[in-house]
Amino acid sequence: MKELKIKSTLQVYESLDKLPDEVQELMHQSFKIRDKAYAPYSRFLVGAALVLENGEVVLGNNQENASYPSGLCAERTAIYYAGAHFPDIPIVRMALSAKSLKHQLITPTPPCGACRQAIAEYELKQNKPIEIFFMGELGKVIRSYSLANLLPLIFDKSYL
Ligand code: ZN
Fold this sequence. Notes:
Layout: E1 11-13, H1 21-34, E2 44-52, E3 57-61, H2 74-85, E4 91-100, H3 113-126, E5 131-135, E6 141-144
Parallel strand pairs: 4-5
Antiparallel strand pairs: 1-6, 2-3, 2-4, 5-6
The protein binds zinc ion.
Residues 73, 75, 111-112, 114-115 line the site of zinc ion.
């Protein structure tokens, strides 16, 4: 038996204002779209703002459903829109923010496992890293230079 150790390195910023202007601007767009989320069941609002290589910004938020699995997360709402409308333009970065209507969320909230898998598909497709920033409503922001950092042992087409 051999042990396999997996290492990920993320950067933690104390607050959004410590980040470059273009990242702050993208995160502010995620705040705006987050507040339009349809989340009557979880009361947990998530916003995703993606910027593409051509400067286009694509926004998404979570869309819930009374039949819970039929809903969709903000990250996939945005990335599938980007995939549908701009199939050949790489995604440069994503800014994600979450807010609970039940308590103040100050913990950076990463994408769920299903979204990590979805983002991985696009990162592999474009063969360029997608930089990801995520935060709660306030407080610290975490940066990952690539989705691969958030999803070790990615399942991809090479296994098919
Ligand atoms: Zn998700």
